[in-house]
Amino acid sequence: MEIFAVTKTSVYSVSDKKDELGIPIIRKISLRGKSKVAVGARLGGGYLVGITRECIMLYNEDHPKPNSIQPPEIVNTAFHGGRTSPIVALFFDRKQAMGCFASENLQECDPRWRNQTEEVLKDIGDNHNMFIVSKWPPWAFIYTESDQNEKKA
C-alpha cells in the first residue's frame, strides 16, 4: 500500500514496503519553502507508521505488553522517530495529492479533501500490520460540524 500525505509545506509518499532494515519507507516528494527534511530524504526512527491529524510518525513501542501495538497518541515520546507536520489530507493518487498541495489556503484536516482522506483511512482500517490510525481526539481525523456542512453544500 502506498498513500500520499499532504501537509502545508510538503508531500510525503508513505509506503508499507520496508527497507533492508525493516523500516517503512516514508519519503518527502515535494516541498514549499525550507525544511530540515530535504526532498528525496526519508523519515526514520521506527517500525510502525502512526497516522494522526497532528502528523505521520514512525515509532517503536510495545510496552507495557510485548507484541501488542500501541496507538501513536499514547506512545512515550522517547519511542518517536521521524515525523511530518500536521496533515492537510491523505490520498491514494499522487496526482491528486500534488493538486491539493498546489491549492491555496491549506488547513489541517482540510474539508475540501475529506472524502479522499476518509477513503484512505477506511482502507487502512483497524488491523493493518504497520499503519496505525489514531482514534483519540484531538489526534484523530475528526471533522467539525462546519466541515460536514461544507461537504453537504
Count of alpha and pi helical runs:
3
Poorly predicted ranges (pLDDT <50, ≥5 residues)?
none
How many domains, in number, for the residues? 1
Separation of termini?
32 Å
Question: Could you tell me the number of beta strands?
Answer: 8
Main sheet specs = 4 strands, antiparallel
Protein architecture, described:
The chain is α+β, with helices and mostly antiparallel strands and 153 residues long. The chain has one domain. The chain is built from 3 helices and 8 strands. The protein has helices spanning 94-101, 114-124, 145-152, and strands at 2-7, 10-18, 24-31, 48-51, 56-59, 80-83, 87-91, 131-133. The chain has a 4-stranded antiparallel β-sheet with strand order 3-2-1-7. The chain has a 4-stranded mixed β-sheet with strand order 6-5-4-8, with no helix packed on it. β1 (2-7) and β2 form a beta hairpin. It is globular, with a radius of gyration of 15 Å. The model has no long low-confidence stretch (mean pLDDT 88).
